[in-house]
Amino acid sequence: MKNLIKTLKNIWSIEELRSKILYTLLLLFIYRIGTHIVLPGVNPDGLTRVAEQTKNNGILGLINTFAGGAFSQASIFALGIMPYISASIFIQLMTVLVPQFQKMQKEGESGRKKINQWTRYLTVAVTVVQASAYVAYLRQITAQSGGIIPAYVDYFWLSTVVLLTAGTMFVMWLGEKITDKGLGNGTSLIIMIGILARLPQSFMQELGSKSTRSGLILIFIVEIAILIAIIMGCIMLVQGVRKIPVNYAKQIVGNRQFGGARQFLPIKVNSAGVMPIIFAQAVLFLPTLFNLTGTAAGQGIAGVFQDHSNVYYMIVYAVVVIGFTFLYTALIFNPKQIADNLKQNNGFIPGVKPGQPTADYIGSIMDKVTLPGAILLAFVGILPGIAQRLGVQPSFSTFFGGTSLLIMVGVILDTLQQIETQLLMRQYDGLMKSGRIQGRTVTQASY
């Protein structure tokens, strides 16, 4: 405890770090205020059905999670940062598949600015489409409960689409400002703060359900202990790497010697991050669209895939996550490019010939490491369903795994890594004496 207080004092004594922390907290506070501002023309008392529909309901629940509950509250930030994430994922895939985008990515700072500009344009387009769908969704859900004020119906579509688009762009701007002048990745912090906002209410609901009988309090304590153990396991999954030794040939320039150093190429156990889980949830939401047909078969299929604690859902979900993990890793990880960069920089893996043999060796190591990582990621993804089947409240079970837990663990590690870097730059001790903190920013080396 004494070391913790000393570390906090060191953090607060650095003016630049203190300013970044306060700036970040201020912008996050502004975002949380916006999530409670209801759209014009919407009656807040008629939003009960919206909250029920989005509660643990496939992609709608995912959007509501990323928006910090603003989706179910019909807020001006109802779509949150989700359109920007969708646009960023699409542009990221384009940089792998389209040569023109690959060329822009290699142009350095100017190329990065062009890609960011394209991402913003695509975000506006995606937001307009999602906002239109959200208006239709609100009208359908609140038709009987009177969620939309009748006198405002004629203007509701136009005003809502404009406000939701402006709200998403404002949230995107907040995220960029946090990244530039604050602490940590702004987009990730906005998502994390929305997830954490649901934690106190979910915690109290779970405690209330267990406090009715004295014997259940012990079960609640066991649940908390298991949750802590799962968080520790997720930290190991996020930080786990397989280090491939790399040697660099010595070069004599004048009287100086360059190179000759022994370094490591870190291959992450979970290179794909949280993306396979997001893709899997989006894909498994498609069967629920059969509800629109009104057929019995469609309703049966939708019933299976809407229940995250269903055994068949968990099996299919795990298989899809494993498949997407290999697919996404193959898209973002190019062994051939790494082998070529090593060869250009006079680097080589001991016992492996440069060129194609090095690429094949790195690829084989990547496949061996990705398999257990994909299985562990799939297991983390189905943990909320397992917890729900064991009697945990649905709202609290989402913190036992899945997207929410992985995002929180990754973002917290990234932020702590930045704080530790600031401390070490000023010759203070790090946050922990036992070792350095590695966040998700440490990927497949900077080759």
UniProtKB/TrEMBL annotation:
Name of protein: Protein translocase subunit SecY
Question: By its UniProt entry, which SUPFAM superfamilies does this protein fall under?
Answer: Preprotein translocase SecY subunit
Gene Ontology CC terms: plasma membrane
The record's PANTHER family line, in alphabetical order, gives:
SECY/SEC61-ALPHA FAMILY MEMBER
Q: InterPro entries given for it?
A: SecY, SecY/SEC61-alpha, SecY_CS, SecY_dom_sf
Q: What is the species of this protein?
A: Flavisolibacter ginsenosidimutans
- Entry annotated with the keyword Flavoprotein: no
Q: What protein family does this chain belong to? A: Belongs to the SecY/SEC61-alpha family.
Q: What does this protein do?
A: The central subunit of the protein translocation channel SecYEG. Consists of two halves formed by TMs 1-5 and 6-10. These two domains form a lateral gate at the front which open onto the bilayer between TMs 2 and 7, and are clamped together by SecE at the back. The channel is closed by both a pore ring composed of hydrophobic SecY resides and a short helix (helix 2A) on the extracellular side of the membrane which forms a plug. The plug probably moves laterally to allow the channel to open. The ring and the pore may move independently.
Q: Which GO terms describe its biological process?
A: intracellular protein transmembrane transport; protein targeting; protein transport by the Sec complex
Please give the start and end residues of each transmembrane region.
Answer: 21-39, 76-98, 118-135, 155-174, 186-204, 216-238, 272-292, 312-333, 369-387, 399-416
Transmembrane helix as UniProt keyword: yes
Localization annotation: Cell membrane; Membrane
Origin, by domain of life? Answer: Bacteria
